[in-house]
Amino acid sequence: MTALPGPTLTVDPTRLHAATAAFFGALGVPEERARLAASALCHGDLTGMDSHGVFNLGRLYHPLLTSGRARPAAEPRVLNDLGACLLLDHQRALGLWAAAESMDLAVDRARRHGVGLVSVRGATHLGCAGFHAARAAEAGLVGLVASNCGGQRIAGPPGGRPALLGTNPLSVAAPALPGRPFVLDMSTTVVPTGRVRVAAANGEPVPPGWLEDEHGEPVTDPAAFDQGKARLRWLGGTPDTGAHKGFGLGLTVEVLAALLSGAAVGPAPEALAGEGRPHGTDDDIGLLLLAIDPDVLRGDPGAFAAASGGVFETVLNCPPLTADQPVRYPGWWEAERAAERRANGVPLPAALHHELTALGLDLPTLEARR
Ligand SMILES: NC(=O)c1ccc[n+]([C@@H]2O[C@H](COP(=O)([O-])OP(=O)(O)OC[C@H]3O[C@@H](n4cnc5c(N)ncnc54)[C@H](O)[C@@H]3O)[C@@H](O)[C@H]2O)c1
């Protein structure tokens, strides 16, 4: 979870969704698409993954759509349809919408074949990978989403100087307990860049372990990242504690999402001339959207759901080390937070609320109504 800086204002989640959809609509995104894209974006704000919610509307999606790097009404094109698997070119359609549609397509194929695999090139930023993977879990299937960052390079290999890969998110979702699916949703670097920037804006140090200097020593000043004096670590931390596993996961996403589909890749020869600081752009992103229908696979409807319920119930019942910190599985706290925010409103930093209002979003605050 990311805590955004400063005093907060609270907005009604339905109004936030409607205003976001209207914003996309005003930029030429067809109405139905705009609604689905708004759901994908507001998922970040509802679940507490705030670094990938409306925080990115003005910073990322507005310039993407107005510059033409994303095309609001583009129709994804089928390049190859083999039944259980498809190769698509998203043609720079808005990734928040197109990734969700592609996962729904994977689910549809999995219901017929047991597995549905949609490989995508020409994609744009999909937001929270977990929003799209969870669509499979909501349908009773297992979902996997991998996204590279096109030619955007943010993190270098352990022991290597230039940045070669993006923060390459990976998500796996599955039905678990009622209303509480398993949703592992993460960057393959120790954190996404958004969380470093949030800390910098907040004037707060980051924990040792997120950033390192050119000698591999920990850096806790988040401003050092954008100054080019620190770089993100991979999951696993340092070479001694498993950084190669995180780097390997980042490369795994590159293989699954970009090499399979023919999208742009981070480790292209021109990357070697780059510095340790981020370089390149996240155009022509590659995605993998995979759905597996356990009932079709096993031929025993309900068996997977029952077993999965047992596994995740056991995780919940694991005695905690400290009484006030119960053991939960990935996706649990996000579902809890979404339920709470649906009931009580979504907190937005005042500065972000101001920015969104200036962009034309109609967002009355709950505080103003009291
Ligand atoms: N589109 C992109 O290019 C891009 C790139 C990087 C990240 N992202 C997105 O950024 C978002 C944030 O990523 P992140 O790496 O900061 O996620 P995070 O560190 O907040 O969470 C990672 C995972 O850990 C689980 N988790 C966290 N605390 C837990 C606890 N106490 N108990 C059990 N499980 C717990 C969460 O449920 C989640 O599945 C994600 O939605 C990701 O898809 C997108």
From TrEMBL:
Q: Please name the InterPro entries in this protein's record.
A: Mal/L-sulf/L-lact_DH-like_ah, Mal/L-sulf/L-lact_DH-like_NADP, Mal/L-sulfo/L-lacto_DH-like_sf, Malate/L-lactate_DH-like
Give the record's family classification: Belongs to the LDH2/MDH2 oxidoreductase family.
Question: Which Pfam family, any one, appears in the UniProt record?
Answer: Ldh_2
Q: What are the top taxonomic ranks of the organism?
A: Bacteria, Bacillati, Actinomycetota, Actinomycetes, Kitasatosporales
Positions the record marks as coiled coil are: none
Q: Which UniProt keywords apply?
A: Oxidoreductase
- State the protein's name: Ldh family oxidoreductase
